[in-house]
Amino acid sequence: MWGDARNQTQTGDSVLSIRSGHPVGRLVFVTSCFNEEGNVRELHRRCRAVYQRIREEVRGAERLAFAMLIADNCSQDNTLAVLEELVAEDPEVLVLANASNYGPEASVANALAQTREGDLVVPLASDLQDPPELALEMVERLLSEPGCDGVLAVKRRSSGSPTLRMCRRLYYIALGYSSRLRLVPGGFHGFGVYRQHALQEALELWRSSGWSLRLCLLNGCQSTGRVGYDQVERSWGSSTYQGWGYPREAMQALLAADSTGSRLAFLLGSAGLLAAGGVGIFLLLNWLGGRSGYERGIPTVMALVLCSFAVQMLMIALLSRQVEEIKLAGQLRPRVRHRVLGGLN
Q1: pLDDT digit string, tens, across residues 237-263
Q2: Sign (positive or negative) of CA dihedral 335, 338, 340, 344
Q3: Do 216 and 288 belong together in one domain?
Q4: What is the pTM of this model?
Q5: N vs C: which end of the chain shows fewer Cβ within 10 Å?
Q6: Strand, coil or helix: what is 326?
Q7: 31 within 8 A of 124, measured Cβ to Cβ
């Protein structure tokens, strides 16, 4: 039976809360996958292993239960078959088999919405480039600082060629500049550990705005810690963002940010005003010096044209604020439909 994530979220129910019988919170590893048949089993093994270490080594984590929530984004290989095997082997694994490929952000947001009150949630990539072992340090830091509601994992070094790493760095700089909210750290894409109240705030931001999920996760937290890591090379499979996928995703995230329109329009308007003023001064000096050769009345007409251009640039800068307000009013998110495989006891 297909479930509707939006309806579940609005009523306050979730797959985990409905199926959960544990009196304490869970440490929930959440991931979305597409054609990752060679990685999901190893990811599960490593998440299980680090969970055991967390229970043994982190003070305050002794009673945390384990859960793993995997959303399959309509994979075209044998990923779903491998996930069905995992569900049969581990009762604490839950799989959401999406009815279609909704894209990584919508799939992850839908999976995150299935967690419950009291959970500590670790979103991570399914390609093993986000090391699950980092959860030990992140959970330890989160539990040792009561005022902290999220610990962010920030890449010190990305995988890929030098050119790709440079493009990613420029993208993160642009992404940070495109927001009036807390700037997205370079190398942060959502991997981290979050308390439930911060996660719910992030999901509400995601549903009611056009912002990227990473921006929502960052600004859903009031107080965060950070840990750094070096991203390893992908060992199996290929990234979802191939070819034009990278620039397309980057443009979507930048254009959906809360202040991209106003800042771009302000930049263009300011440049237009400076250009109009500079040309006007140059023409005026030539005319006053008698070197222009203009007939009577021509400088006046040119000045009027430049003033008109300057006013138009100013109007663009001012009207862009209205465009931003309209965008902040929210936009429709895809309705993610899924089947639930497995049952958490």
Answers
A1: 655 555 555 566 656 555 555 555 566
A2: negative
A3: no
A4: 0.70
A5: N
A6: helix
A7: yes
